[in-house]
Amino acid sequence: MSLARRLSRDQIQFSEEGEVDLLHYHQQIKEALQQVLAALATHNPMLATRFLARKEELKRTKRNLHLRHIRQLRANIPNSTESSAIYLDLLDAMSDVLAHVSNIAYVLQEGSNLPPFTSSLRNLRTGQFGPMKWTSTQQLYAISQEELTKSEKIVGKSSTG
Fold it and tell me: Would you say residue 126 lies in a domain?
């Protein structure tokens, strides 16, 4: 945010090419976010899969923009030097958004392989899904009644002894 204030306060401007590049990359990230949000809203893993197929292309775009910016700095293109830190910060921020969008897409894609009301639990350490043993409500009630009876017996023995 401080770089944005400096951009405004010091009236720093991007080179014409740099500004067009940032706006184009921003548009691509925005479209990716909209696609994954649509997949999330409609529970459509195919939309998430389509985004993930484009993800590498978006990462290459960022890398190419970064390299182009370095070339502009070496060529002393006006406004490139003054706005360099802000330009690179914006590229990184948009790349961070892309990473979060990717994480959402991966979860949607993984979730598509599971039936509704997930029949497996995710191991937080490994990220792998494992089977979950379902217990009927009646079984849970019987177990809790049994545990209650055992507890009462133990408490009864300790209070009389």
Answer: no
Are 89 and 140 contained in the same domain? no
Domain encompassing residue 60: 2-115
pLDDT tens digit sequence for 21-77: 999 999 999 999 999 999 888 888 888 889 999 999 999 999 999 999 999 889 888
The CB density around residue 104, as the number of other CB atoms within 10 Å, is 16
Question: 126: which residues sit within 8 A by CB, 6+ positions away?
Answer: none
Q: What is the pLDDT of residues 76-95, one digit of tens each?
A: 887 777 788 889 999 999 99
Count how many domains the chain has.
Answer: 2
* Same structural domain, 60 and 138: no
